[in-house]
Amino acid sequence: MKSTFTILFYLRKNRKNENGQVPVMARITINGEMTQFSTKLQIDPDQWEQKMGRGIGRSSEIIQLNRLLDAMRVRATDLYHKYLHEQGYVLPEKIKNILLGIDTDKRKMLLEYFTEHNEFYKLKIGNHTSHTTHMRYELTRQRLQEFIKKENKLSDIPIIELTPLFIEKFFLFLQNEHDCSNNTALKFIQRFRAVFNYIKSTGADIKADPFASFKFKTTKVVREVLTQEEIDIIYKKEFLTERLCQIRDVFIFMCYSGLSYIDVAQLTEDNIKTAFDGHQWVMTKRQKTNVPSNIRLLEIPLEIVERYRGKQKDGKLFPVCSNQKMNEYLKEIATICGITKPITCHVARHTFGSTVTLANGVPIETVSKMLGHTDVRTTQIYARIVDKKLSSDMDSLARVYKTRKTAK
Q1: Lowest-pLDDT choice from 66-70, 93-97, 166-170
Q2: Is the backbone of residue 186 left (phi > 0), alpha (psi -120 to 50) or beta?
């Protein structure tokens, strides 16, 4: 659709001053969207030609007024074509601000934009975004504020001062001052870049991308998983406190379902359903991606469900504490069980993707669907082939070659 632009001048006749003059107003309209403002100029209504939007007469005052109005028209038209060419769209409010000397691109600072982004992001929580991710953006802003104060001795900086060197120094600051691993520091940089892209989308006049030369190279991480023997040790262990029993039950349920902490915390009894095959399944949507995740319940997770069914007042299936507290209790459980591996809620999800499913011959496509992944490549990260499965596969291969040799 073709973009339309008009600017016209008119009088505000109900605002006469003591000399009988009234303000000359401007109205900018782009594609039906309008903004109007005072030009700061005034004229006697009798000396105004409404149809032409100009002053009438040859006095020096009228000539000067018309010259200023013409200059404003030309400036507004040039701005319209400039931003239409660069960004594909123009807001009349933006042209008005520039004409009045209120160019918000030059006034607004980096952390101001960051705050604006986070407030806008907060409004989208529950609609393909989460509270957790919003808090991570808030933490990124906080770390950036700390860095600016340390590096520049300022509370904020203009966006035009963003440089590749600034990004590199912030990356090192995260590693050195906050003990972030390479991958964790990169997550902060990725969120920073997302905010930078938001700043560009607002129409800010940014000449170069400071992230263009930054190398996002993640370090390959060996993800910890439990063996079947370790799962059994934890499940069969008798704990002295009800608190650890509950944490153990929720953790084991996660090992056999692949659900993340937040998905288990939000699980209700309504999510446990009898499917077409007569078996009970967890049927839910992942909070992170809103993708359906359906997992058949095996014997052990079914036992755990029955243990807690109907006991929660809020309709939830399990009594789940905060993620931080749960991970603290899991460390305690690991110590009691004599397991030296670091155990967290996410270890349960990795364990499901490898020990429980893939190591027992479940196809990776099926595992991917149960985990609620949209791309099987994501599942390949979780589903580490354990030694047991590798050995089993090689035994099968050895039998194939042994059969071929015998046949000869």
Answers
A1: 93-97
A2: alpha
Nearest to 40 by CA among 8, 79, 68, 76: 68
Structure tokens at 232: 């059994």
Q: Which long-range contacts (CB under 8 A, 24 or more apart) does 371-376 make?
A: 371/258, 371/293, 372/285, 372/286, 372/289, 372/291, 372/292, 372/293, 373/291, 374/289, 374/291
The tens digit of pLDDT for each residue in 78-89 reads: 999 988 887 677
Amino acid letter for position 389: K
**295 near 258, Cβ under 8 Å?**
yes
Look at residue 32 and tell me whether its pLDDT is greater than 90.
no
According to DSSP, the β-strands at 22-30 and 280-285 are: unpaired
Q: Where are the alpha helices (DSSP H) in 123-241?
A: 131-152, 164-177, 182-201, 228-236
Tell me which H or E stretch contains 48.
Answer: strand 48-49
Mean predicted confidence (pLDDT) in 195-213: 86
pLDDT digits (tens, 9 = 90+) for 115-149: 989 998 888 876 667 777 889 999 999 999 999 99
Q: Are strands 22-30 and 33-43 parallel, antiparallel or unpaired?
A: antiparallel
What pLDDT, in 10s, does the model give residues 330-377? 999 999 999 999 899 989 988 998 889 888 888 888 888 888 777 777
Give pTM, 2 decimals: 0.56
Which residues have a Cβ under 8 Å from the Cβ of 339 and sit 6 or more positions away?
226, 230, 233, 234
DSSP state letters, 149-177? HHHHSSS--BGGG--HHHHHHHHHHHHHH
CA 312 to chain centre: 32
Q: For residues 76 and 70, what is the distance between their CA atoms, to the nearest angstrom?
A: 10
| Cβ neighbours for 76, distance < 8 A, ≥ 6 positions apart | 7, 28, 95, 99
Residue 382 CA to residue 245 CA, distance in Å, equals: 27
Average pLDDT over residues 42-47: 92
Q: In angstroms, rounded to a whole number, what is the distance separating the alpha carbons of residues 57 and 99?
A: 26
